[in-house]
Amino acid sequence: MKILTANRLTDGIAVWYADGGWAETVDHADLAHDKAAEDRLEAIGAKAYAANEVVDVNLIDADVVNGVVEPVRLREKIRAAGPTIRNDLGKQAGKQSTWAA
């Protein structure tokens, strides 16, 4: 499965495409289960990039764990959670992190 991620141009925050817009959390990102869905997400990302909404648009591997979307690679898990040295900062500060570094 793949999900679409980028960085919001206005503030650099990592975002994921979910429910027709860019969400600051990965939990409910739209999943692409096949090539057609991947192509659709890539087209959405290209359009948002062209409109100067986001930069560094990428499809990344993801899994669903306990009903929640999670990135597969460690780099993407860090982007989703926040700094690895302080759990009281970043996105992980607002919720319990579901992965261990």
Cα(first) to Cα(last) distance is: 23 Å
| Secondary structure tally: strands | 5
Mean pLDDT: 89
Low-pLDDT windows of residues: 97-101
Number of domains: 1
Radius of gyration: 13 Å
| Count of DSSP-assigned helices | 2
Shape: globular
* Overall helicity: 10-25%
Biggest β-sheet strands, sense, barrel: 5 strands, antiparallel
Beta-strand share of residues: 25-35%
Helix- and strand-based class?
Answer: alpha+beta
* Biggest sheet strand line-up: 3-2-1-4-5
Order of helices and strands: EEEHEEH
Protein traits:
globular, alpha+beta, 2 helices, disordered C terminus, 5 strands, 5-stranded antiparallel β-sheet, 101 residues, DUF2849
Write a structural description.
- The protein is globular, with a radius of gyration of 13 Å.
- It has 101 residues and is α+β, with helices and mostly antiparallel strands.
- The chain has a five-stranded antiparallel beta sheet with strand order 3-2-1-4-5, covered by helices on one side.
- The chain has one domain (2-93).
- A hairpin with a 2-residue loop joins strand 4 (54-65) and strand 5 (68-71).
- The chain is built from two helices and five strands.
- It holds the Pfam family DUF2849.
- InterPro entries: DUF2849 (IPR021270).
Question: How would the blueprint of this fold be written?
Answer:
Elements: E1 2-8, E2 14-18, E3 21-23, H1 35-50, E4 54-65, E5 68-71, H2 74-81
Antiparallel strand pairs: 1-2, 1-4, 2-3, 4-5
In short:
The protein is α+β, with helices and mostly antiparallel strands and 101 residues long.
